[in-house]
Amino acid sequence: MPDIWFPYLGIEIEHLSKYAITIGSFYVAWYGVIIACGVVAGLLTARALAKRSGQDPEMYTDFLIYALIFSVIGARTYYVAFEWDNYKDDLLSILNIRNGGLAIYGAVIASVLTAVFYCRSKHKPVLELLDTAMPGLVLGQAIGRWGNFFNQEAFGSYTDSVFAMRLNIKTAAYTTTELLQNSVKVGDVRYIQVHPTFLYESIGCLAIFAIMLIVFKHRKFRGQTACVYMIGYGILRAFIENLRTDQLKVWNTDFPVSVFVSVVMALLGVILMIILGARAKVEAKKKANKGKKNEYAPSLDADDDDAAHEEFSGASETSEQDDESSDAAEASDNVDDIESVGSDAAADSDAEDEAASEADKAAEEEETEASADLTDEKNKPTEEDLWG
Q1: Nearest Cα to 150, choosing from 243, 32, 6?
Q2: Which residues on adjacent β-strands are paired with residue 301?
Q3: What is the pTM of this model?
Q4: C-alpha angle 268/269/275, rounded to 5°?
Q5: Which pLDDT score, from 0 to 100, does residue 363 have?
Q6: Are 272 and 259 in contact (CB under 8 A)?
Q7: Which one of 65, 105, 135, 258 has the largest count of C-beta atoms within 10 Å of its C-beta?
Q8: What is the layout of strands, in order, in the sheet containing 189-194?
């Protein structure tokens, strides 16, 4: 009989080994191989998006080195913190991660904190890095969940739906009372019948990945793609966590800690989306008023931006026309002034000529009068003539 069986889908897997390579006492688990494939796929995605957006792809290779180290530490710390009773009596067992015990949320939180410190040291915008890296993160998660399939772990509660997955009790990582009560015996093999939550999450992550790629291409502000991850994965994980049987619980309660983290992350993503979007809209309008376009912070309402840009363009054209009219009027005034000055100069010249002419006439009259007086003086009878 098969180890794994999807009875309603007609899929049977006769034997599923947890190990990809086994040489004596040395072995390489499929879980590690699949996680490595997810990391490589995520890195290639981040580098491709970085190149498309004009960034240096090598920066993301450099960042991955730090992110891997701290994400493993974060994933282990998160898990141990909520399973402390299993480690408090043997602290050295905390370092043994070969037997599992890593939580994805711990890795995500540690990676984001690493991104913040990395960007500060490199003087790079952290939202830009998160926008570029998180599509690769969610793709890596989609691939990595298949490691749970090979380990036959991280499955859900009992179901008889079309996607029901039957696991051989002998090879399943664990069982619960509910699953044992609803177990199915086929021949000599007893199966538990569960939700394949690894499959649900893998498909959901691929859908989020596709949406993030679209948003990244058409994003209107830095951080928009990261917010889509927070909202999308938060909702997805909150749904799936309610189905799983291996939940980590909030201390001294029966409430799943991952549900709490998922809800908080989704709400925080919505709040950041609103704040960053509103800020981008204000900045875009300021840029429009200055006749500049901001690539990473345009308005959420394209019509408002177009109207503002058209209003600015119209105002600019009107201003230019007014300037041209003013220059033409000024030039006309200058011509009139020149003509006026020329007319005044001509008038002054005519006045001077007229004055000179009158002066000449006056001089001629004086000369005539003088000549007449002289003639009269000559013709005046002398005393001799009077006495003669």
Answers
A1: 32
A2: none
A3: 0.73
A4: 85
A5: 56
A6: no
A7: 135
A8: 11-13, 4-6, 165-168, 189-194, 184-186
How many beta carbons lie within 10 A of that of residue 149, not counting itself?
Answer: 21
Burial of 206 (0-12, 13-18, 19+ CB in 10 A): middle
| Model confidence at 366: pLDDT above 60 | no
Q: Which DSSP symbol is given to 94?
A: G
CA distance 294 to 276: 14
**Least confident piece of the model among 120-124, 174-178, 286-290:** 286-290
* Cβ proximity of 131 and 225 under 8 Å: yes
CA distances from 283 to 287, 290, 299 (A): 6, 11, 8
pLDDT digits (tens, 9 = 90+) for 206-250: 999 999 999 999 999 999 999 999 999 999 999 999 999 988 888
Residue 158: its pLDDT value, please? Answer: 95
How far are the Cα atoms of 71, 205, 348, 378 from residue 235, in angstroms, in the given order?
22, 11, 95, 139
State residue 101 phi and psi, 5-degree precision: 100, 40
Q: To 10 degrees, what angle do helices 30-52 and 57-82 make?
A: 140
Q: Write out the two tokens for 298.
A: 């345009």
176 class by beta-carbon count within 10 Å (0-12 exposed, 13-18 middle, 19+ buried): middle
Tens-digit pLDDT profile for residues 332-353? 554 454 444 445 444 444 545 5
